[in-house]
Twist-related protein 1
Amino acid sequence: SPAQGKRGKKCGSGGGGGGGGSSSGGGSPQSYEELQTQRVMANVRERQRTQSLNEAFAALRKIIPTLPSDKLSKIQTLKLAARYIDFLYQVLQSDELDSKMASCSYVAHERLSYAFSVWR
């Protein structure tokens, strides 16, 4: 029945089906070992995804000016990044940096970092 087909795909394999059965291979669509392998692979993918996400947050934390005492959670980092983008947009709109300061990227970065820490 169609309901059995849906139940068979619940574990994420997408394979199997309810066809007439073969003389070799056993009765269940997936063996315990196959399910275990799928679980292990899903865990590996999740670990890689989490590691990639953590690396992205670490890179973002290096870009956003923070105080030495700041130990930001992921949600705090995202909120602060959004505020920093808004701050930079306001700086661009108001033309606060003259062209001489903009040419010296280190000084400009330090001024922006200080201005942002005061602004936030």
Summary: The domain at 32-119 is CATH 4.10.280 (MYOD Basic-Helix-Loop-Helix Domain, subunit B).
